[in-house]
Amino acid sequence: MRIVRRIAKGLALILILIGLAATIVPHYLDRIYYEGPESGHYDGARFFNPDGDADTLRMPTRGGRGGFLWRQLTGDDGRPAWPETVAVRASRPEPRVEGQRMVATWIGHATVLVQTQGLNILTDPIYAERAGPFGFGPKRVAKPGVAFDDLPKIDLVVISHNHYDHLDQAALKRLWQRDRPLVVTSLGNDSVIGQVGVPATALDWGRERVIKPGVSVVVTRNHHWGSRWFADRNRALWSSFVVKLPGGNIFFAGDTGMGDGRWPEEAARLGPVRLALLPIGAFRFVPGQMAAGSHIGPPQAVQIFERLGASTAIPIHWGTFRLSYEGYDTPPKLLDAAMRCSGERGHFAAVRLGEPVEVGPFRAGSTAGRTSDAAMQACLHTAQVRALR
Q1: Alpha carbon distance 278, 301 (integer Å)
Q2: What is the pTM of this model?
Q3: How far is residue 124 from each of residues 121, 158, 369, 375, measured CA to CA in Å?
Q4: Residue 331 near residue 321, CB atoms below 8 Å
Q5: Mind listing the pLDDT tens digit for each residue in 86-110?
Q6: Tens digits of residue pLDDT in 237-269
Q7: Please, is 152 exposed, middle or buried when counting C-beta atoms within 10 Å of its C-beta (0-12, 13-18, 19+)?
Q8: CA distances from 367 to 298, 322, 349 (A)
Q9: Among candidates 315, 274, 269, 346, which has minimal Cα distance to 102?
């Protein structure tokens, strides 16, 4: 057993050295994904968060990048155990959903199929077994809730940024070869997507692409960062999206931290939000930490839900790949507690992978109110104390 462990650690050390070498040869691994005029979030070479990047630059744990990678690869990082596999009852969606009826199916991680107005919309499609380059990276514990071959013809794909757990080149290539969908993303990611022969429309924050009369997609601000390698950090932009629709919009948060917390209200100004797709996982990077600069946890997701004024939300970005320290089912449990702390305005609760969800019509004022950080934390602390009695 000791020999096996030594071999595993030796292989892990080799991988770490390879990763460190990648930082020493930035001219080889760096990529220029976008060139354009400077703006309030682009300095002529790299993008940045206008509300500050200090929190997204912070290392996720003590010991620097090498120590973090070592603990990730050897499993000696103090994280709670996750299941090796999770049972999933996959479904086969309808070919089309017409009119204002809306059906959403969580496929896994940040991949959601939303069907309405005769359109099939897919967010950040990832079908890879591992979320990383060259077959490395976190392994999928839950199979997709809809098998690739069971997907209906896809009309619109939105890609939030270029991290491997959100931009799956192989899946995009298969979708393009099969369906020729419109792919919309933020600046620079079209270069990454184009590497596999898939054309994409890349837009800056605030820009809009019309899909058909009465339906359009707007690229909107969030708070994150982008990279395919260590050296190409922030060469491409990250974003959320608003799909403007009759009867109420869809908001897809992508991958995001809280930042200044104003970007949800900016999205809400584009029209009433009928359905929000909000991440709740990969938020606890060290024991006891409830949030990270690059990701929101359930309490922040509930606050964003409130600020959007959304009627319905589906939690995403949990239970598919183990990306941080929380337990497998901690995000939905904490979401349930955070929603009770907010007064349970609107509907925001976990759904099963592959389960088609009928999204009701927009209800004005369903999330009226705003829970402060202090009130949320105090309520969650009290709820935890009561649960321990």
Answers
A1: 6
A2: 0.89
A3: 10, 6, 30, 33
A4: no
A5: 999 999 999 999 999 999 999 999 9
A6: 999 999 999 999 999 999 999 999 999 999 999
A7: middle
A8: 16, 31, 14
A9: 274
